[in-house]
Amino acid sequence: MFAQQRHQAILERLQEEKAIKASDLMELFSVSFETVRRDLELLEKAGRLRRVHGGAVLSRLDYTKELPLNLREGAYVEEKREVARVAARYVQEGMSIAMDASTTNHQLARLLKDQISRLTVITNSLAIAQELTEMPGYRIILPGGVLHNEEQSIIGELAEQFTAMFHADLFFMSISGATLEEGLTDYGIGEVQVKKVMLKNAKRAIALADSSKLGAVSLLKVCGADEVECLITDSGVDPEFAESFRQRGIEVVCR
């Protein structure tokens, strides 16, 4: 098993059990203690777990840092699927939608394949484009530009200029942080610039964030919290957080 596959399996198990023993990982992967130690050290540096004596425990992701896609892909999977199920209700046959590069939007793309047969999708995500290639009734619009390898996304001035040509019916905007004071935030300068273009040109915009990101402030501000139609999250949302947004006239949808 490759290191990346082990990391994914560790993250998935931590999501289920919240803690894991190094000895269990050695047995699970048939590897040495040194291999497990290196795996846990790497994941701890990425902010995904906290090492403790004999193993590791679940740690909240640090959304101020640009974490590798493979680490984010295995984090809060059920919560992202819950967000995607709610978001899918906003999509109708024949619509044009914009989707930025994110693991939550990737979950949404998987769902839409089973629910919608005709769609135009504007995305800078190679993973989302690849996910939807099997759909004959989907028109996929992918910009040119600079490939951000780790994110599997297209960024840069060319990508922004190309994306600005299109006015989607609906933009699903992923975010890594949401507060009333700092608004909706994310990391990745190139990705944020593409988000801003999609946001400016879309007729409607909806923010997507699992509940682990609510109350966090990431590196870059994308927009104010009131600049989107609503914020879709999962059922684990803190009721006080949701109420504070609603009191400011910002809809929070969680089911």
List the topology elements.
Elements: H1 3-17, E1 19-21, H2 22-29, H3 33-45, E2 49-52, E3 55-58, H4 69-73, H5 77-88, E4 96-99, H6 103-115, E5 119-123, H7 126-132, E6 138-141, E7 146-148, E8 153-155, H8 157-163, E9 170-174, E10 177-179, E11 183-186, H9 189-201, E12 205-208, E13 220-223, E14 230-232, H10 239-247, E15 252-253
Parallel strand pairs: 4-5, 4-9, 5-6, 9-12, 12-14, 14-15
Antiparallel strand pairs: 1-3, 2-3, 7-8, 10-11, 11-13
Helix pairs in contact: 2-3, 5-6, 6-7
**Stretches with pLDDT under 50, minimum 5 residues:** none
**Share of β-strand residues:** 15-25%
- Topology, number of strands: 15
**What is the percent of helical residues?**
40-55%
Tell me, briefly, the overall form. globular
Major sheet details: 7 strands, parallel
Structural class by sheet pairing and helices: alpha/beta
Order of helices and strands: HEHHEEHHEHEHEEEHEEEHEEEHE
How many helices? The count is 10
Gyration radius from CA atoms, angstroms = 19 Å
Going across the major beta sheet, what is the strand order? 6-5-4-9-12-14-15
Q: In oligomeric terms, what are we looking at?
A: single chain
Describe the overall structure.
- This protein has 255 residues and is of the alpha/beta class.
- It contains ten helices and 15 strands.
- The strands form four sheets. It has a seven-stranded parallel β-sheet with strand order 6-5-4-9-12-14-15, sandwiched between helices. The protein has a three-stranded antiparallel β-sheet with strand order 1-3-2.
- The longest helix has 15 residues, at 3-17.
